[in-house]
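Lab notes, practical 5.
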Amino acid sequence: MKEVWQPPSPTACKWKWTWSTIFLNTGRTKSCFHNPIVDFDTETFDFHNVPIKVLDRQQMLDGTWPDGCAYCSKTELAGGISDRISQNKISESIPDNLNTVTEPKIVEVFFNNTCNLKCLYCGPKLSSTWVQEIDRYGPVEFDPRLSYKFEQDRSSYLKTLNKFFEWFEQHKRQLTRLHILGGEPFLLKETDQLLEVLSQDQLTLELQFITNLQIDETKFDNYLDKLIKLIHNNNVGGVKIIASIDGWGPEVDFQRFGLDRQLWLRNFNKLLTIKEIKLDINVAITCLTIPTLSELIKMWNEWNTVREVGLQGTRVFDPSFLAPEVLPTYLIKQSFTEALELISTDTWYKQWSKDRFSNLLPILDKYPEGNAVEMKKLKTYLDEISRRRSVDWTGIFPQINKEFEKL
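Output from the prediction step:
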């Protein structure tokens, strides 16, 4: 039986010891999906042991909740299965020690913000098309993420990028996973640079890409050929592609603006035939994604008749007005429950996926009336997005619009 981490306290999370995300275009870092982002010294490049991460580890050892772990602490307080609980059950990347200063096993890298989509929950730091929209229409004043003009210092970025590759050369053999994000990783020259570096070595790490699959099919085929070659030559221990999609239908087209669902499906169907590459889908769960979640889960079940496809889901809480619990539960809970019922539990991985999705139910039960203040913000946001993109959101989400009319 594989070893499972035994937390030293009721608040300890193994990702705090083993995981770091780094944003090379801003020189910032965090410990997991949900933690606040903080600056790190790009000269020393010790992103894993910035003061707040060291303090968080000590607080976890002491059995207290770090301030940045509110996502999981609130989920557990409501009776849900938090990401901390579900991730601690995974028998991989076990911390080597409980030192407050340590080395990462999983590193997630955002190279820069080149991206061809404008997702509702994203912004200019992570999407160049968001930058273009703000250039054209100005900032979205009431949303801090969208109320400024993001500009990247190219010379500073190239220096930080070189530091990353120097760090990677020194630490690559201790990593179990390396995640590549963007913007969109398959549109980045940095991805080509990384693949060339990996082709010169033999490593055991798993290489993961989180992608929107909005890539020219010929270009995507070329990338797949390179990845298969890395696997066959033992340059990496494995490759996983995590395809982002938040539902299926006009609703997801609005949320992931610029999405060509047929292109997504053609690229995804190619991946289904390539057994060497592991395959997941990832859903960003907002108050707007839930209505079409069942349709996506039905498709996921069909994909699993071809081969195993993982399912990941993360509740969006920033911006706060897109969180699922913003809307009254009568609008979304039934749809969400129906989607959950479609997730079978015939494998450990499917059960793990269902548990992660289920952690939303106690949150919805805690806020049955929704949040009127956040709903007003959401309406203002949707109205502004519709104006900028010449799309009528009220026709796409008529039930939600009726609820807003009561405000």
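Observations recorded by the TA: Residues 154-171 form the longest helix (18 residues). Residues 190 and 405 are 47 Å apart (CA to CA).
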